[in-house]
């Protein structure tokens, strides 16, 4: 699948930011429970999280949706069910809906207070950090197993 000139494979995460009217926060949380029941029936849905606002005078919620692949996310984003649920939320919200998609390891490195102001790290930084985090423990495990199991191949 191509998106903005890039090939996308693997899991995709979507961050949806919405400011809610302060007197409608409880209604919005009930709305989130309802839409969750709908989205979890969609193919490829992996899970969702709700990040509640810290400042109740400016209640901005972040909904995190995870799908196994981009095509399944697009199916949800283009569905009539989603559109109907969004119409129900209009009376509870202020301003426009903000949607940001993150692919691969990006969500690990960008858990923003305001996702629309964050920029994902450069891909090479993500690769370097992943290698530095994974290689040493795997090398230690392989060395330990080679000691415990003499026939085990030596690490590189």
Automatic annotation (TrEMBL):
<keyword id="KW-0472">Membrane</keyword>
<dbReference type="InterPro" id="IPR011008">
    <property type="entry name" value="Dimeric_a/b-barrel"/>
</dbReference>
<feature type="transmembrane region" description="Helical">
    <location>
        <begin position="127"/>
        <end position="149"/>
    </location>
</feature>
<keyword id="KW-1133">Transmembrane helix</keyword>
<dbReference type="InterPro" id="IPR038762">
    <property type="entry name" value="ABM_predict"/>
</dbReference>
<dbReference type="Pfam" id="PF03992">
    <property type="entry name" value="ABM"/>
</dbReference>
<keyword id="KW-0812">Transmembrane</keyword>
<feature type="domain" description="ABM">
    <location>
        <begin position="12"/>
        <end position="87"/>
    </location>
</feature>
<dbReference type="InterPro" id="IPR007138">
    <property type="entry name" value="ABM_dom"/>
</dbReference>
<protein>
    <recommendedName>
        <fullName>ABM domain-containing protein</fullName>
    </recommendedName>
</protein>
């Amino acid at each position: 699948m191509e998106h903005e000139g890039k090939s996308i494979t693997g899991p995709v995460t979507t961050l949806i930011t919405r400011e809610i009217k302060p007197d409608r926060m409880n209604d919005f949380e009930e709305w989130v429970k309802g839409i969750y029941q709908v989205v979890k029936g969609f193919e490829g849905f992996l899970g969702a999280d709700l990040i509640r606002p810290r400042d109740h005078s400016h209640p901005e919620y972040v909904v995190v949706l995870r799908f196994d692949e981009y095509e399944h996310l697009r199916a949800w984003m283009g569905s009539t069910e989603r559109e109907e649920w969004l119409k129900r939320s209009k009376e509870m919200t202020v301003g426009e809906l903000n949607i940001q998609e993150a692919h691969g390891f990006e969500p690990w490195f960008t858990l923003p207070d305001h996702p629309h102001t964050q920029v994902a790290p450069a891909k090479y930084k993500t690769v370097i950090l992943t290698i530095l985090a994974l290689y040493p423990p795997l090398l230690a495990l392989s060395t330990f197993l080679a000691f415990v199991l003499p026939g085990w191949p030596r690490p590189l």
